[in-house]
Amino acid sequence: MTDKKLGKHVSQLDAALVSVEQTLGVLLERPISEVCGRLTAVERCELEALVVYAIDTLFWILLKVNGVPPKEHPVMIELQRVQRYIGKINKAKEAVEQGEKREEGRRAMQVDKAAADRFIRNALAEGKDAEDGKDAEDGKDAEDGKDAEQNGE
């Protein structure tokens, strides 16, 4: 590798490390209990996995810079373990999101009790009126039948 390429890679690494310091600096300014206190359980898991992954990645970079093959170092096992946990966290997030969608669907399918009460009350009232009218007609027919019997019809 030429000095020019090496210098380019070193400056890229330096810029990346500055970016990491700025990003993690926001988290490190406050106590972790304060930061985590405002997060949900899933967000807290994501944050903790992010911090561990960042530390492991920085250590991997340190090994690489010092000429130690990181693939043969236990840090690779740790990185893979953290990646598995990140996958589990993502699955949990998806399950939570699907549960929220199901809950929204259930809310959409809930019956408006007041409207149902009015509907039933009105239907019963119409049915009662119809039955009262039917009874009145039945009574009239019955009376007509008695009149016909008395008249010899």
From TrEMBL:
Region (Disordered): 123-153
GO molecular function terms noted in the UniProt entry: DNA binding; RNA binding
One Pfam family of this chain: Sas10_Utp3
Cited InterPro entries: Exosome-assoc_fac/DNA_repair, Sas10/Utp3/C1D
Top-level taxon in the UniProt lineage: Eukaryota
Keyword annotations: Nucleus, RNA-binding, rRNA processing
Record localization: Nucleus
A cellular component annotation (GO) from this entry: exosome (RNase complex)
Family of the protein in this entry: Belongs to the C1D family.
Job description of the protein: Required for exosome-dependent processing of pre-rRNA and small nucleolar RNA (snRNA) precursors. Involved in processing of 35S pre-rRNA at the A0, A1 and A2 sites.
The name this protein goes by in its record: Exosome complex protein
Phylogenetic placement of the source organism: Eukaryota, Fungi, Fungi incertae sedis, Zoopagomycota, Kickxellomycotina
